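Continuing from the previous page of notes. For each protein in this section, the sequence appears first, followed by its structure tokens. Read the first protein now.
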Amino acid sequence: MSYLSYRKERKRLLAEITKAKQLPPDPQKARLHETDLRVLDSDRLWQRAEWWGLSRSDLGPWEHDPETGRWWFPADQRFDEAKKQFAEGRYAVVKKWVDLLSPIASLVISILAFALAALALYLELIGRIQ
């Protein structure tokens, strides 16, 4: 699911929840939409975690509905903890790549600096630079 379709669906569900809580209130419909919203947010978090190479178990315990095959976080507090773990996992992946690429980048820069110094010396020796 793309980010825009996720945002659209989330906005639609929030509107449905608000509509269900207005007069006359329909708590069953509101609860159903709140569950759908929690599943939608959990799916989005899970997709982002998979993209960064994290597994579902890395983010914490999930609840599963065998009839629909849907997974979600049991409570908002757990969801916030999972978002924090996701951020830490994303930071670890980025840090790994930075640690991997920084020596290579410094080597490339030093080779370019050496080549530029060698070119300046050559041009000075043949008389093009005074």
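Done with the first. The second protein uses the same format. Note its length before scrolling.
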Amino acid sequence: GKVVVESSGSEVRVTHISGGEGALVAELASEPGFDVGGRYLDWEPQRPATPEEAVPTRATIVLDPSDGAEGDPEHVYWGRFVERRENRPAIPPRGTQPAQLELGGLALALAPGDPRSGIATTLARELSELLGVTVRVIEHHPTTPSTDGTARVSDPIVVHIQPGDEGARTLAALLSAVEAHTVRP
């Protein structure tokens, strides 16, 4: 057998020369900055068992010399390279986010005694790391308007987490946004 890595993808070629039936598990090589996209075993597309699963990264190649008149044919496991996309963005450079977010940060406002304060605290920590700004949990937003009645740029942007289902939906949306940027496929 041999392993070939080319600009378009990589492949494993195996030929059963002698002996009885056997099997081996092959995994395709990839290049830095690339993942293996579509995969084919003996030129048949490899598909997940269910729509929720990913395409398998490994293939089991069954070696059976009784398959053909001249013994087992060559088996080929091939995959096309696709550019890897990083899901976690770098922290944006200073001055590229709204001034109020950079100067005042973000506040997750919960009702006093809300049982979801632990989840909100974890979310605040993750959002702070992701955005590179201060994110905190508060029980209520202190109203400190400027003299003309408008919010100051140094005030935090406040996300009110309402009690009940509405607040649960808000937390779920925020958690999903963090997950989308932090979990790699």
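What the second structure shows: The longest strand covers residues 75-83. The beta strands are 2-5, 9-14, 22-27, 34-41, 44-45, 58-63, 75-83, 106-110, 135-138, 157-161. We return to this in next week's lecture.
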